[in-house]
Target: DUF6325 family protein
Amino acid sequence: MTTFDYGPIEFYAIAFDGDKPGPGVLQAIDDLVQAGTINVLDLVYATRSPEGELTVMELSDTTDDDGVPALDLSGLAGLDDIEALAAEVPPGSSAAILVVELLWAKAFASALYNAGGVVIAREGIPAPIVNAFLSENVE
Model:
């Protein structure tokens, strides 16, 4: 029987004004970590200047980590990943590029693998879109 060391991972780009996310964003991430839902593998800040230049700062390059979740695999997000995820960051704004392990899906992935199944595709739909659609189409 195979047991995976890590579950599936996902990359997120979380946009915000300014050069750092507010404490509420970091608290929301920490709440998920504390609940055992996710494990933060990597966290990168990407800031786009008013002129459109992208600056990337690895969390491991910062000295003030108050309120920032601990990282398991810093450096997992490569520059190509970061640039692709930050492509929609408007000038004068920033994004946190977050790589998380889906702890809830770890046992599911092992069970599928042991049963001879493999997930070959996955599509995510952001919660605001799901909720807007359902509020308009469900009576």
